Amino acid sequence: MTRRSLQLVNRLGLHARAASRLVRTAAGFESAVWLERDGRRVNAKSIMGVLMLAAPLGSELTLECDGPDAEEAAEAIEALVRDRFGEDQ
Amino acid sequence: MILALSGTGVSDGVALGRLHKLSHRELDLPEYHVEDEEIERQVRRLEAASAACESALAAMEAGLPDEARGAAAEMLQVHRLMLRDDTLIGESVRRVRTDGINAEWALDRQAASMRSALERSEDAYLALRSEDLDQIVQLLQRELAQSGAAALAERIPAGLEGTVVLARSLSPAEVAILHQRRVAGVITEHGGTWSHSAILARAYGIPTVMAVKRALRVLREGEWVILDSHYGAVLATEDDGLHGHYGEKVRQLARRSARQARALAVPDRTLDGERFRLFGNAEHAPELTRCVEHGAVGIGLMRTEFLFTETLLPDEETQYQALRTAQAALDGRPLTVRTLDAGGDKLPEALARFDGPNPALGLRGIRLSLALPELFDVQLRAILRASAHGPVRILLPMLTRLDELERARERIAECAEALREEGVSVDPDVQIGGMIETPAAAWMAERFAARLDFLSIGTNDLVQYVLAVDRQDERVSHLFDPSCRAVIELIGRVVRGAAVHQRPVQVCGEMAGDPRMVPVLFGLGVREFSMPPGQLAAVKSRLIRLDAARARREVADDLAVSDSDSVAALCRQLDPGSD
């Protein structure tokens, strides 16, 4: 199992478009992927779950991946967040 | 005889056609307990329904016409993800197993619990998403009810071209189908400006009136109806005169919208390739949405006085939520928020005690904010909190002195620091701009520019103060002339002062939305214009036909040699002619 801390650096935070990218990325892995913010834990493969985090810019998230490709999944999601979900700045 | 109904016009236009009602079978949701092997059958039904609906949406996305691909594809993608959603489908499956209930019932229970979580959310954007959830659940329930048939297109027959379609409510996917069927107009009993289906109707340009109560009961299948969404009106009538009148109006609007659509599709550049940027002036959601739809790259002026009209001053949360609602409409485009510009003719009741003998020259704009730091801080905190959710720019009104700007910047920095200490995120790069609307600020533009991220020329007040004319006073209102040479020369000075520090200058008064003045402003070096949404198309259509090099030359020549009081002649000279 892999745990990492992430900080949202895109201006919009986790809104529909970013959430939909995150969910599609997470769904590409076999591992279970969880996101946690302020004690709320959701399945990162669920768009409703990710949307309900309502995470704004600067939010600290904990990412947790569990499964055979946990490392790769964590890496991919971390890269997506770091690249601001491809949002134009 | 005329029967008139009213609702909310959500997508402008006029339509005339025969009415077609889309059936709305009330779905009888069967609810029963199941056991053992039946449980697995219910699980498979749910999973099959979700897969069938998703592939229907995927096929629809692939078949979208190019002109609507962006907006529609995004909405369909979010809906597709919801159809595979583990919280929706996965948890419903779990309910089938643990509660031992049938698929429809499990889905209904799970949806209800998610809906209440969404509606409890304090985030305005999220609360709106419960409508999407409802539409997805509806689609799934329809699929479950008829086991296998194509639930999506089921109630939309062929041969709808030119009809006005009436339904209880419509999903975005259904609006996309109606567009392909070339319907003339759409009426729904439910929904409103914010519905995804309304956004899509606007993207497609289908005249649409929503929230027309009892329409299904009152209107008859096949009768002639006129729909005028500007007034939110639906008329059922056989009157030939009215039909003729509206028929002509439909053709006129079609010609105009074709012209504007052509202008919208063109990049924001003049004839000779110089870039410009158009922004909107708006406060409320429908207007903000219209700005985006008419090609604004952001909001250049969001006034905040409307929040202060009640006897009680709005708290931080109220102001924050108003900004969040605006951000939801802008979808990532920058929002420029002008801090309270109370005073003059617009003092809210709660601040009436600050009224003075000469309000235009009294305690207004930034002066009032600095005099009441506790009031100012509440507003700044709300704006800074919103900055974490999307690009926000702060605009300070009525600057006359550099020290006012310094004090305002200190308040902003302190509020941001306090928020960070409370663990609230704030965009560290919030831009701070100043309204240049007093002769003092205009004259000192270069010094202000050194301390600002952007400048915004408020021409209405600037004209009033430069010319010393109150335009409410009928005896002198004819002297209120924005094309007066003194004003134009001063704007030129502001642009040059800002250029020294490479700061952008936008014009956000009425002048920016006046197609006759815009070429002169462009010739002076203004590249950003902010105006009410209704002006965007006309201004763009003027600018894309402008020869920028010529405008610059002629403005410079005119300023150098002409002695006339007004630049009206120059405006006419630069008019590229109508289309």
- Helix % of chain B is 40-55%
Alpha-beta content class of chain A: alpha+beta
Q: Please tell me what the overall shape of chain B is.
A: globular
**Structural Rg of chain A:** 11 Å
Spans of chain A with pLDDT under 50 lasting ≥5 residues?
Answer: none
User: How would you state the average pLDDT of chain A, rounded?
Assistant: 83
Q: Give the largest chain-chain interface (CB within 8 Å).
A: A-B, 26 and 29 residues
Radius of gyration of chain B: 28 Å
User: How are the strands of the biggest sheet of chain B laid out side by side?
Assistant: 1-8-7-3-4-5-6-2
CATH architectural arrangement of the largest domain in chain B: Alpha-Beta Barrel
- The CATH C-level name of the largest domain in chain B is Alpha Beta
Strand content of chain B: 5-15%
| Major sheet of chain A | 4 strands, antiparallel
- Contiguous runs where pLDDT drops below 50 for at least 5 residues of chain B: none
Number of strands of chain B: 16
Number of strands of chain A: 4
Please bin the fraction of helical residues of chain A. 25-40%
Q: Give the total of domains of chain B.
A: 4
Strand order of the largest sheet of chain A: 1-4-2-3
* Shape estimate of chain A: globular
Query: How confident overall, as mean pLDDT of chain B?
Result: 87
